[in-house]
Amino acid sequence: MNNIVSTETAIRLRDAGFPQPEFEFGQLWESESGRNLAFVGTAQFVLLKQQYHLKEIVFRPTAGDILRAIYNHFASMPGFSVDIRLSPTENGFYVDVFEALPFDTRNKVWEFHENAAEAAALAWLKTREK
Fold this sequence. Notes:
By secondary structure, this protein is of the alpha+beta class. The protein has 2 domains: 19-59, no CATH class; 63-127. The chain is built from 4 helices and 6 strands. α3 (63-75) runs parallel beside α4 (116-127). It is elongated and about 55 Å long.
């Protein structure tokens, strides 16, 4: 699952304020222990929800889910334009977040990981640093 974050990263994201969305078909949710996971729309997901309280399961987002959240974070700032790039390399993926200025761009975030979703997660976490 190279396009989905690990359970540990999903917990870090949630604890840092990453949105835990409404259940939608195809999403992957997992117990915090990592012992039970299921995709929304399957019988296993019904069992997962029955076995655990909502606060005991965590959404495991894809790289796309996280990049949308990064974009939405910056797009909500007045007068701010952002360019986000997820680029593959020989050894993995890097995420660049650029602030678009009138005559220039400025790199805001740069993160690398062998997993695309993990690279995006690192970038999202960095946008939350003060």
